[in-house]
Write a structure and sequence with these properties.
By secondary structure, the chain is of the alpha/beta class. It is built from 20 helices and six strands. It has a six-stranded mixed sheet. The longest helix is centred in the last third of the chain and has 23 residues.
């Protein structure tokens, strides 16, 4: 694994600002081990949570147990999502095989089978360390778990360069957060997670998890399922959403994706990222979402490649999209997506509980959409028609087919995809539900703060009022397929994702 440029990144400890405790229990110093419950940062490198757990184990001179479990009844559970996660579990099992930690993978076979596993392990642990991810069902699950265990329960934030709790303010615009980041990030450049959390640590080793626990909650054969996803047929998940064999989950695949981007795509990112026929986007989003890739590693390796140092940044924080990093246009554009726009979503989810609700939209957006709620719609489609890519618009249909087959939509077309759903549904509230359902069901990077940022941007979040005022949209930013086709090269994209080119029998 690459190391930090030593002159730029010095502090190797987990900042306390990234750690919070969910209960008032104490550390049990005579426990048998430290337990790391891996739920969001599903990787063995560049992981503050694993690093914190390893530090606790070293301080207490106790073994470290890493529990990575996957329930079967989360919303939108499917072959596609399960296989991506299980592939990562295989990588983690292999990575920790020769490390001073005992890895315990568990796959729930029926809803509720995993109930009690964490409490059983925690009853023998010194404390529990877990991942502080602000989205989907994870925060609620962890709050419940923290109340049930009888030891200290810590949450560690390994999400972005800015700790989520560095501010308690919700930023309404990317410009506002960008300006804040330009002031605040220099205070955090020296605090990155260790590439290898076990560096210089000597831990006692635990041979196995107690038999009474593994008898009730068997160790999963993640290697077999990762190699042959047909075994997922035994699980009570949605088998109509198939795996994406071209996009394998896990830390190894994430590392390959990162190295390919830095070597071959970074220089073209500024010019080509919006072109659907160019493969210029990073492809990081599924790996970032499932925690197989660390944004800190991406940042550190980009800095090393470009020989960038923290003192290269501009002295004034103006909130401009370019110029502050003193890097190329492509590099600055990429960093703005990786940091500003990504962390904008995490900021919202961390501080505003209703981030998934229509009522969380800005007042101006709800007002203008309400003013035009009764406008005539030339086309109105059902969820099923959208899902099957059965609209009159061939570019929209192609984008939907890409989502169905590949679990993603090209970044620029994803915006058009959402705008047309707003235009072709009976109400904006229905449009919101359609976007959430389709994105979270099929997208590998769905169920994420950035998913909700993109979906709600369609309806006005993080945007401003636009003119001229239009039917249905009101003052919401408008996009059309015709304009998109004029601005971008889409002929090849349309051919690639035409109904004739894409086989959907396995989906419906």
């Amino acid at each position: 694994m690459p190391k930090y440029p030593d002159s730029a990144f010095e502090d190797r400890t987990v900042p306390e600002l990234r750690v919070r405790t969910l209960n008032d229990k104490q550390v049990r110093e005579d426990g048998d081990f430290v337990l790391y419950w891996m739920v969001a940062f599903r990787r063995t490198h560049w992981n503050y949570s694993l690093q914190r757990a390893a530090e606790w184990a070293a301080d207490l001179n106790k073994p470290l147990v890493v529990l990575e479990a996957l329930r079967c009844d989360y919303k939108w559970a499917s072959d596609r999502l399960h296989w991506f996660v299980v592939s990562g579990m295989r990588d983690n099992a292999e990575a920790l095989e020769d490390r001073p930690a005992l890895y315990y993978p568990y796959l729930e076979r029926s809803p509720g089978d995993g109930s009690g596993l964490l409490a059983a392990l925690a009853s023998q642990a010194c404390l529990v360390v877990s991942d502080d991810f602000p989205c989907f069902f994870l925060p609620r699950m962890q709050q419940i778990a923290a109340r049930k265990v009888d030891v200290r329960f810590e949450m560690v934030d390994s999400n972005g360069l800015l700790p989520m709790r560095a501010t308690d303010k919700v930023f309404a615009r990317a410009y506002d957060l960008r300006r804040y980041l330009q002031k605040e990030l220099p205070n955090h450049f020296g605090h990155l997670p260790q590439p290898d959390p076990f560096t210089d640590l000597k831990l006692p080793q635990l041979d196995k998890v107690p038999k009474k626990i593994t008898d009730k909650w068997p160790i999963a054969d993640v290697q077999s399922l990762a190699d042959d996803p047909t075994g997922l047929a035994e699980l009570p998940i949605d088998h109509r959403v198939p795996v994406v064999r071209s996009t394998i989950g896990g830390e190894r695949a994430a590392q390959a994706c990162l190295q390919e981007f830095l070597a071959d795509k970074l220089e073209q990112y500024g010019d080509d990222r919006n072109q659907p026929e160019k493969d210029a986007t990073s492809g990081f989003s599924p790996y970032l979402h499932f925690g197989h890739l660390s944004v800190h590693q991406v940042f550190a390796e980009l800095a090393a490649k470009l020989k960038w140092k923290p003192d290269d940044v501009a002295t004034k924080a103006k909130g401009a999209r370019s110029g502050w990093w003193n890097l190329s246009e492509s590099a600055e554009g990429f960093l703005d997506e990786l940091i500003t726009w990504r962390e904008l979503g995490y900021n919202m989810c961390a501080h505003q509980a209703d981030y998934t609700r229509y009522s969380s939209l800005p007042d101006w957006a709800r007002e203008t959409l309400a003013d035009h709620a009764s406008d005539a719609r030339e086309h109105v489609y059902s969820l099923e028609e959208f899902e099957r890519a059965e609209t009159h618009d061939q570019l929209w249909n192609a984008a939907q087919r890409q989502l169905l087959v590949e679990g993603r939509i090209h970044n620029y077309l994803r915006m058009l995809w959402g705008k047309k759903i707003l235009e072709w549904t009976a109400t904006p509230e229905v449009a919101l539900q359609v976007m959430i359902e389709l994105n979270n069901k099929y997208a590998l990077d769905g169920r994420n703060p950035n998913s909700y940022s993109g979906i709600f941007w369609v309806l006005g979040r993080y945007d401003r009022a636009w003119g001229p005022e239009r039917d249905i949209f009101g003052k919401i930013r408008y996009m059309s397929s015709d304009n998109t086709a004029r601005k971008l090269k889409v002929k090849g994209y349309l051919e690639r994702y035409s109904q004739q080119s894409v086989t959907q029998q396995s989906l419906f």
